[in-house]
Amino acid sequence: MTRTIEVVHTKNKKEKPNADNIVFGKYFSDHMFVMDYSEEKGWYGPRIVPYAPITLDPSAMIFHYGQTVFEGLKAYRTADDRILLFRPEKNFRRLNQSSERISIPTIDEELALTALKKLIDIEKEWVPSLEGNSLYIRPFIIATEPNINLTPSKTYQFMMILSPVGSYYKEGIKPVGIHVEDQYTRAVKGGTGTAKTAGNYAAAYKAQERATKEGYSQVLWLDGMEKKFIEEVGSMNVFFKINGEVITPELSGSILEGVTRISIIELLKDWGVPVTERKISLEELYQAYDQGELEEAFGTGTAAVISPVGELNWGHRNMVINNKEIGELSKKLYDTLTGIQTGKMADPYDWTLEVQ
Ligand SMILES: *Cc1c(COP(=O)(O)O)cnc(C)c1O
């Protein structure tokens, strides 16, 4: 279905942040995409308008029961001034999967991608050119019906906003310390862990606060049932290289299916590196460590791409992985993925999409 996307240009362009020190998440571009939903019309009124605050009724359902979903992806500027998106169709697919879980009506994925390309084209100047910088894209849907009844909303708004972000690694890639969380739970099978929905993240703050206080940068989440199997690190998927084999927790029903995760799995398979998706317990990991077989560990996600784990702390059991240095395979994965994303390397998998 072709639909026209109305465009209203801003009259007041904002100043852009200083390229060498952009704080994550604080700057937003001049325009945003908006589309509405009602039961009678379905999704309607796709438009690009000046970025501005929105007005909602205090009883709007989003404020009370958290009926909302979001996505996160990036646009990169290449050395020859092209703008690339990385597997964006996967993000809109996942947005719809999240929506299904939260009883939000799905969107037309193709329309969303067309709208995103158009929005970025209008906001071209906001895609930073400094190496390591990128334009972070935040699509999200909120329940807008003014009604505090405990039922799914009858109206929604889908929006996309853009935020220039700095390099995740300003002083080179530095492995991080991780604290094993054995009290709080991020998600359980049958819950909402597979959806990118607000409540999951608010519920994780408490554990993150404690980890930060103890000097760790992220938490390692265990399965909610037995607190035995490894699930994710912070809001990243997690990989371990044990005795030459790469292992990542299987999609158990409480793990978020990362676009970076599947890309890493596909790269490893293509390289002939053994990679397995299966349950892995913390006990098994510590045993591998004790036997000197744990070679590398890293988290994966859009923000950092690869975040090597240098230290894992579980009460009195502490492990130091690969001498707190980035592993050889982690480095190769990082260089390859970022190389493809930024157009520095060829893209034999057809993962990138040029905005033009
Ligand atoms: C978004 C997210 C990830 C990573 O997904 P990417 O698509 O690779 O960015 C992993 N875990 C959680 C909980 C997330 O919210």
What tags apply to this protein structure?
binds pyridoxal-5'-phosphate; 18 strands; D-amino Acid Aminotransferase, Chain A, domain 1; nine-stranded mixed β-sheet; 2 domains; 23% helix; D-amino Acid Aminotransferase, Chain A, domain 2; 30% strand; 356 residues; alpha+beta
What does this structure look like?
With 356 residues, the chain is an alpha+beta fold. The chain folds into 2 domains: 160 residues, D-amino Acid Aminotransferase, Chain A, domain 1, CATH 3.30.470.10; 166 residues, Alpha-Beta Barrel (D-amino Acid Aminotransferase, Chain A, domain 2), CATH 3.20.10.10. Helices cover 23% and strands 30% of the residues. The strands form 2 sheets. Strands 1, 2, 3, 4, 5, 6, 7, 8 and 18 form a 9-stranded mixed sheet that branches. Strands 9, 10, 11, 12, 13, 14, 15, 16 and 17 form a 9-stranded mixed sheet that branches. A hairpin with a 2-residue loop joins strand 12 and strand 13. Helix 2 crosses helix 3. The chain is globular, with a radius of gyration of 21 Å. The two termini are 21 Å apart. The mean pLDDT is 96. It binds pyridoxal-5'-phosphate. Pyridoxal-5'-phosphate (PLP) binds next to helix 6 and strand 15.
